[in-house]
Amino acid sequence: MLGILKLAYKLLVNDKAKFTALLVGITFAVFLMIAMTSLFAGVLNRASATVINLGASIWIMDPAVQTVANTIGMPDYVLDAARSIQGVKYAVPIYSGGALVKLADGFYQPVTVVGLDDTSLFGRPHLMQGKIEDIYGENAFIVVKDPEFPKLESPELGTEFELNDHRGVVVGIATVASSGLFGVPTLYTTYERALQYIPNPRFTISYVLIEPKSAADVIHIKQQVKALGYLALTKDEFMDKISTFYMYQTGLGMNLLIMTVMSFVVGLSISGQTFYTFVLENLEKFGALKAMGAKSRELILMILFQASFTCLTGYGLGIGLCALTIALAKMRLPDYAAMITYWNLGLAFVMVVVIAAVSSYFGVRKVLRVEPFDIFRG
Amino acid sequence: MPEPAIQATGVVKWFGEGEARTTALRDVSLDAYFGEMLYIVGPSGSGKTTLLSVLSGILRPDSGSVSVEGADIWHLGSDKLADFRLHKIGFVFQDYHLFPRLTTAENVAVPLILKRQNWGEAIAEAHKYLEIVGLKNRADLPPVKLSGGEQQRVAIARAIVGQPDILIMDEPTASLDGDTGHSIVSFVKNNVLNEKRCILIVTHDSRIYELATRILKMEDGRLTGIEKGGSA
């Protein structure tokens, strides 16, 4: 059997022009499919950046919240109510909102401000410079050093700025797991200072973060929060909710889906056409093999192998090319949001398998219909 | 007389249906024996290639029977029939049908590879048969680099590498000049034919008639006579 596969392999790769055309077609299609879906994955990941970075197990929010950036204030008694729910280990408030920073040169820069619970500082970022206790200092803020950091003129410890007419001072520089979607720098401070600096309706909370005592308590907590008229979502559920919003309510998902489908169609048409031409050109030879005693299933195996080999090689090359492109793009554009996930790779793999199946289907049909007698007749 | 390699009895084959029906073979019966080089000659359209296809297990007759070494091949299932062709028959096609993307040695090894022989062993065996046909130094070249006569010899090496009992040659001299055609068929007679092998050649090249053991003449789907040798 290996000999037959080697024969199929040689027939395929020794036809260098066709094989190259097939590989280019598949590679290009895979590149486009992964580039599109990874861009989408990157966007979704960044859209959930605050959820990922804070790391809370459960988020309590207004049921109308669609993304973490679109906060809807809840009355502050929700925090007390949450703390009294059986199964809650602890519950802390979190502030998340936008503000304008006036830089030293007089320009204004929008920022995201995250206010951490004053007592626990739950969800604090990993500090690269400075000490976490300095966040309690006067006007203290921690700046996240991500691709947006230069927009604050690359501040250092002690750098001062203005935020809503209040003085701010950088006391720490931190890193986070994920950068935000909207291209604005992130500042961390305490919850009370965030409320003090950024006007909000009185006695409201953006979100309440909960840590359950055990995983089994999650359902009960969610039920109790629902009874209060609010929504409790686990971290994954909240990220799904955000993804769903961007996917179905912004047009982003549909546009990227259309591009992905177009990539698939391009790949399918190029490789399908080229592979079919390849089979047609070798049809007499397949007929000769049949006459010599090759069984139909052996010819099918040869064609399937050729299609699979081409598609999987193109798949590998496409992934490599896409990873390289993303790496190069990120060197030039730190904000570039593409992110290759197993999901992207799996989707592209399924599409490549479909391309291989469709390409070989027409070839197999043709080969099964060829009569060895036609070879004799010439 | 040695035992018959092929026995065909009352073979009828037609193409098309209704008014478009054309009868290609009309009640053809013949015996082909081991150790003989049997020619089937006749004008174009007389049914020679159709007969060859029926005798070699490629084209199913509409009636009649074909026995090879005593077994009725048209009672075999498609897989068994493919196995029969692989193990018992060697084909030399009119247009050779060599794979242009494989080397000469790989082309010759194809029947052995279909027999699931190890690739390396099959190539080694192919080299031996290329030596037999005088093309040892062409083993690594693609067929397109060879002359017509050399390609024909590669096709012969491919046909005999599996040591078939029956060798089928369809118009072996059609693409060759007179001298080359004659030398190729002489080569086959001298080096490939033996008492355990039967060679069937379809041709209308009278320049090679002298090399035949027997010549059967076909016309309009019927065996009409014997030009050389004994009975049909």
Explain the overall architecture.
The complex is a heterodimer of chains A (378) and B (232). Chain A is of the alpha+beta class and 378 residues long. Chain A has two domains: 2-46 and 251-377, no CATH class; 63-229, no CATH class. Helices cover 53% and strands 19% of the residues of chain A. Chain A contains twelve helices and twelve strands. Chain A has helices at 2-13, 16-47, 49-54, 77-83, 191-197, 217-228, 235-249, 252-281, 283-292, 296-332, 342-369, 372-377; strands at 58-61, 74-75, 88-102, 108-116, 126-130, 140-144, 160-163, 166-175, 186-190, 204-205, 207-212, 231-234. Chain A has a six-stranded mixed barrel. In chain A, a hairpin with a 2-residue loop joins strand 7 and strand 8. In chain A, helix 1 crosses helix 10 and helix 2 crosses helix 10 (296-332). The radius of gyration of chain A is 29 Å and the shape is elongated. The two termini of chain A are 29 Å apart. By secondary structure, chain B is an alpha/beta fold. Chain B has one domain (4-228): Rossmann fold (3-Layer(aba) Sandwich). Helix content of chain B is 31%, strand content 28%. Chain B has six helices and ten strands; from the N terminus they run βββαββαβαααβαβββ. Chain B has helices at residues 48-55, 78-88, 104-114, 119-132, 148-160, 178-192, and strands spanning 4-15, 22-33, 37-41, 63-68, 71-72, 89-92, 166-170, 198-203, 214-219, 222-228. In chain B, strand 4 and strand 5 form a beta hairpin. In chain B, helix 3 (104-114) packs across helix 4, helix 4 crosses helix 5 (148-160) and helix 5 (148-160) packs parallel to helix 6. Chain B is globular. The model of chain B has no long low-confidence stretch (mean pLDDT 89).
Shape of chain B: globular
CATH structural architecture of chain B: 3-Layer(aba) Sandwich
Mean pLDDT of chain A: 89
CATH fold label of chain B: Rossmann fold
The N- to C-terminal Cα distance of chain B equals 13 Å
Strand order of the largest sheet of chain A: 3-4-9-6-8-7
